[in-house]
Amino acid sequence: MALSPTVQKILSYYESDNPGVKANLVRLFLQGRLKNSGRLLIFPVDQGFEHGPSRSFLTNPDAFDPHYHYKLACETDLSAYAAPLGALEAGASTFAGQIPTLLKLNSSTTLYSKNNPPNQAITASVKDALRLGCSGIGFTIYPGSDASLDMFEEIREIA
Prior knowledge:
Strand order of the largest sheet: 1-2-3-6
Number of strands: 6
Number of helices: 8
Strand content: 5-15%
Largest sheet: 4 strands, parallel
Structural class: alpha/beta
Low-confidence stretches: none
Mean pLDDT: 84
Radius of gyration: 17 Å
Distance between the termini: 31 Å
Helix content: 25-40%
Shape: globular
């Protein structure tokens, strides 16, 4: 499939990046109902990790199935599925090649006291993303947090 002028323009901004990065961007842009439009529709599912599975999934018990979110992302023809390590590992083999994935490298926790600044725990690595065949990674940084500069340093160390 030829790339649309919009996708070509977006890729032109990544000329200094390596071909692997650009190939993964193309992979995302050519997936799903928005394919080749220059837009992406990514399904992020980390609520079960960050907020606890019961709080996140009790209203929809099907969501406790580790394949549920993969199936939903595939059936609704999305651009990619983004999740933490365990969720991606649970279906990576079964759904290999069916939808691009993004590995969330860090997550917060509901166990922090309200007096602590927003911060994240690193729960995965770039090596994990490569092992799982992910098209990319996600890493949350809270700008303005007392810990935000530490978060920037953490992503430099693991990238």
